[in-house]
Amino acid sequence: MLCYAIVAIFSACLVVLFFPGRWQPNSATKSAQGLPIRVLNSHELSLYDGNEGSKGKDASLAFVTGDFTESGLTDDVSGLNPSQVVTLFDWLLFYKRTYQSVGLVAGRFYSKSGKPTAFLLHVESLLAQGQQLKAETEAEKLHFPSCNSQWSTTRGGMVWCSTSSGGIERSWTGVPRKLFSVGSSGSRCVCVEDPLAANKDPNLQEYDGCPTYAISCSLVA
Q1: Contact at 8 Å (CB) between 221 and 157?
Q2: 169-207: per-residue pLDDT in tens?
Q3: Distance CA 118, CA 160 (A)
Q4: Which listed residue, of 54, 68, 89, 148, carries a Cα 20 to 30 Å from 187's Cα?
Q5: pTM for the model
Q6: Alpha-carbon distance 56 to 64, whole Å?
């Protein structure tokens, strides 16, 4: 029951989390019903999270880290990278669909007058970066779907392509290649539609001992 209580408390915290203007259809001064949006202090927040008389807090960081200890229950998200900020934004969208917004929390993201802080603008810029990276990653997955793979102690590993490998339904099968991404020390197996064009891409590499047009490749342990 304690776990459920904790979830309920922090759910309420997130509902009145930071609401950047570009993150929601409401303005900084009007609600969806045209009413002024309230700016809540920590005491008022505690009334919404079910702990009247205790100190309410914005626990934004915990929704990304999963750290619900006292030190993890903080609104300091300065250590999050762009992709993690997107994850936090996804939580915000979830709670917006489920709960009614009761206002803005004065603190790290909003001033007492309800104005966005410099830190909020910084988080917004990270969100934009994260969403751009996510879009690029999704586009890459469509262009280079992941391979199917399996491994056994007796036969070793194998990667292969099909018309649905990587969860991408398509009309072509493709051939396996190693894809090296910028900034990553490793590679992942992807299916490429045109083997000859792939040979001209410096980020793509054939598997050792695997024929150029083979749709499956054995991996030596």
Answers
A1: yes
A2: 999 999 999 999 876 778 999 999 999 999 999 999 999
A3: 49
A4: 89
A5: 0.63
A6: 19
